[in-house]
Amino acid sequence: MASLSASFKSDAKLSSILLAPTLSASDKSGIISELMKSASINASSKEGSTVKNFLETLAENNRLNQLEGAADKFGELMSASRGEVELKVTSAQPLDQKVLKQLEGAVGKSRFVGQGKKLKVVTKVCRFCWKMDLSGVEETDC
């Protein structure tokens, strides 16, 4: 599912194609095949057949356009079931590995990451995450 989510993020045209209300059953089948191929998912494996069934269910219900959000949420659920706690780090410029390891070490020892849990660090670079106005510095949504 993570590879499907990555496909959405890398292909801007994919979202617009999936929003088309006039897709025929054969169009949807072709899209599912291409999604599976681009995400390197083997449909004959147990996991691949589960993903294929999921995609076919979305297609039958005209919900293929919801795939990106569903894939992201599925990833969150899987992380939670594996005992992973996500640490999201947003910075104005890329952080080097030393700084990320220090953050991971500090947060990993805190009470926010429980016993037996694994810390998963997710980084994001947003060059415009701060704006200056007359009242001072304010965080913005990236």
Explain how this protein is built.
There is one protein chain. The protein has 2 domains: 77 residues, no CATH class; 57 residues. It is 51% helix and 17% strand. It contains 6 helices and 4 strands, in the order H-H-H-H-H-E-H-E-E-E. The strands form 2 sheets. A two-stranded parallel ribbon has the order 1-2. Strands 3-4 form a two-stranded antiparallel sheet. Strand 1, helix 6 and strand 2 form a beta-alpha-beta unit. The model has no long low-confidence stretch (mean pLDDT 80).
Structure described in brief:
The protein is α+β, with helices and mostly antiparallel strands. Helices cover 51% and strands 17% of the residues.
**Helix-strand string:** HHHHHEHEEE
Structural class: alpha+beta
Helix content: 40-55%
Instruction: Report the β-strand fraction as a percent range.
Output: 15-25%
From the spread of the alpha carbons, the general shape counts as elongated
Adjacency order of strands in the biggest sheet: 1-2
Number of individual domains:
2
Q: Which ranges are low-confidence, i.e. pLDDT below 50, for 5 or more consecutive residues?
A: none
How large is the count of helical segments? 6
Assembly annotation:
single chain
What is the tally of beta strands? Answer: 4
Average pLDDT reading = 80
Gyration radius, in Å: 19 Å
- Biggest beta sheet attributes: 2 strands, parallel
Write the layout of secondary structure elements.
Elements: H1 2-10, H2 12-18, H3 25-38, H4 46-60, H5 67-81, E1 84-91, H6 97-108, E2 118-125, E3 130-133, E4 136-139
Parallel strand pairs: 1-2
Antiparallel strand pairs: 3-4
Helix pairs in contact: 1-5, 3-4
